[in-house]
Each structure stands twice: as structure tokens, then as C-alpha cells.
Design brief:
about 160 residues; alpha+beta; Alpha-Beta Plaits; 6-stranded antiparallel β-sheet; two-stranded antiparallel ribbon; 4 helices
Amino acid sequence: MSEDVIVALGSNVGNRYQNLVDAKTFLTQLSSKKVLSSSIYESEPIGPSDRRYFNAVIIMHTDVDPFVLLRKFKEYESNCGRDLNARRWSSRIIDLDIIAYGNEIITTKELIIPHAEFSRRLFVLLPMGEIIPDWKDPQNGRSLKELIQAAPEMDITKLDFDW
């Protein structure tokens, strides 16, 4: 059975817009149904980088096991030129994070779903609110509205890109 998978996309190296467009094409090819995509946002980086990110969220549909999907995402990131061994929060051409996989709750060394950091990231929550405003965290039942209100403030701007 096909599950809804919420994927956060981010890029702060090179042509950030094109990096997201290319990643959307990749996710569309993996999806068993038409993907839903948020607007693109520009946000301040978290961590030591001084480069601003372009971020978006896509909902895709798949019956691919979440661990296999994670490996496909890491392979795509690597093929795009991302150094998968770089230090945490370093600049990146593309970052694909599985935020949620249906209502699954997974906690392993390799994969945590829902994503461990998503509830503190307005660059994930605001785009999610555009395309799935009624979503609730399967782990604690909190609504997106509650999560957005509780998230730390950050400098983030919705951009007017057609993608």
C-alpha cells in the first residue's frame, strides 16, 4: 500500500532554485502519484554556515520501505555532489529529509521518523502548513499550528517562485 511521505528539501550551494527543481523531478519519478509541493522559502542557516537556504516540502507517495527510500535519497544527494561525510550543518547542494512516512514511528540509529528535528524548524513547518494544514504529529498528536507556534523564531521568507 502506498504511503504519504513528507520530504523536506534544502539547498544553500550553487543554484539553490535549480537544485530544488531537480530534486522535485527526482521525487516525482519515485512517487506513485502526483506530488504536492509547497512554496519555496529562503531561511537563515542553522549551525555555522553563512549561506542562506532555499527550502520546500514535498508530499510523495510510495510503497518503498523507508530504509530503502533513505538510501535512495542519500545516493541522490551524493550523485549531486553532496559530501555525505561533511560535518553536521555544513553547506550542501541538496538535502532531502524524510519528515514523516505515513503514521510510522521509527527510531533506529539509521533513521528516525518523524524526523527528530522537524518540530523546531520553521523552514519545514511553514511549507508543511501550506500543503497539509490538518496534519498531526503521529508521535504526540500535536497539530501543525501548535508546532509552528512552539518553534523557535527564525528569519524566513516565502519566495514567489513557480516550480
